[in-house]
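Worked example 3 (structure in, sequence out).
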C-alpha cells in the first residue's frame, strides 16, 4: 500500500437551485479516522461519493485535493451501509470481486489471508444467504481491504448490526485499517466517540469540529471520557436539529 495522504474537500453543493450544503472545508488527516456526523439530508454521503469520484446527484463547486498532489478517486476503497454482496457468489468470490471486475487476476494468497483475518475461513464456500449479518459485514470489510487502497470511505457500514456485533466490527475495522486515511459517516455519537481521532458534525450551514477523547481508538464503550464525548455529541446534534 502506498502511504496515506492528507485529504481536503473544500466547496459547496447544490441540487438544482437548492443548496445541499454551504461552503465548507473538511480536512482528513493522513493515517487517521475522521468521523462525520449529522442529521439526514445534510450531505454526508454526498461528501463520500464526491471523494470517491462517484455520481453524487448534486452539483459540486470546489476542490478535492491530496497532500501529495496525486489524484484521489483511484486510491479510494468504499464500504457502504449495505454489504452489496453478490448473492450467487461465495465468500471467496465476493472478497476478490474488485480484481475480477477489472479483468485482473486476484491475489489468492492475499484473499485467503484476509478471509482468515476476518475469521471467515470456515465460510469461504458459503453464499451470503448462509451468513449472519455480522459475517456479511466482515466479508464486505475483507473486500474493502482486498483493494489495498490508502483512503477508505465508510458509509454507516455497521448501523444495521446489533450492539454487540457492531462493537466487534468497530474493533476489527479499527485494527484492520490502521495507517489508512479513513472517513466514517455515522449517525451514532457512540460510534464516533469510540473511533474518531477527529470528529466533525455537519449541518446544511457548515461543519462543527468536536474534541475527541484522548484515549487511543477504539476506546472502551464504558470509558468515562468516551461516554462524556458521546453525550456532548448527542447534545450538539439535538441542538443543531432544533
Amino acid at each position: 500500500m502506498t502511504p496515506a495522504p492528507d485529504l481536503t474537500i473544500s466547496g459547496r453543493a447544490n441540487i438544482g437551485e437548492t443548496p445541499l450544503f454551504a461552503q465548507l472545508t473538511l480536512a482528513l488527516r493522513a493515517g487517521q479516522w475522521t468521523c462525520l456526523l449529522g442529521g439526514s439530508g445534510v450531505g454526508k454521503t454526498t461528501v463520500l461519493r464526491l471523494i470517491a469520484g462517484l455520481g453524487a446527484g448534486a452539483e459540486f463547486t470546489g476542490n478535492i485535493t491530496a497532500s501529495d498532489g496525486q489524484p484521489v478517486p483511484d486510491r479510494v476503497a468504499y464500504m457502504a451501509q449495505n454489504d452489496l454482496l453478490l448473492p450467487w457468489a461465495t465468500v471467496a468470490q465476493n472478497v476478490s470481486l474488485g480484481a475480477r471486475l477489472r479483468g485482473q487476476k486476484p491475489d489468492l494468497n492475499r484473499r485467503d489471508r484476509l478471509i482468515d483475518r476476518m475469521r471467515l475461513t470456515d465460510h469461504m464456500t458459503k453464499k451470503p444467504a448462509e451468513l449472519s449479518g455480522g459475517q456479511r459485514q466482515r466479508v464486505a470489510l475483507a473486500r474493502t481491504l482486498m483493494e489495498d487502497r490508502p483512503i477508505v470511505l465508510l458509509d454507516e457500514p455497521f448501523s444495521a448490526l446489533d450492539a454487540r456485533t457492531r462493537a466487534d466490527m468497530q474493533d476489527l475495522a479499527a485494527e484492520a485499517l490502521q495507517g489508512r486515511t479513513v472517513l466514517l459517516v455515522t449517525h451514532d455519537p457512540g460510534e464516533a466517540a469510540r473511533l474518531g481521532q477527529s470528529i466533525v458534525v455537519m449541518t446544511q450551514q457548515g461543519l462543527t469540529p468536536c474534541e475527541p477523547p484522548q484515549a487511543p481508538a477504539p476506546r472502551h464503550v464504558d470509558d468515562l471520557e468516551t461516554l462524556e464525548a458521546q453525550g456532548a455529541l448527542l447534545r450538539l446534534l439535538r441542538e443543531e436539529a432544533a
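Notes: The two ends are 44 Å apart (CA to CA). Residues 87 and 128 are 6 Å apart (CA to CA).
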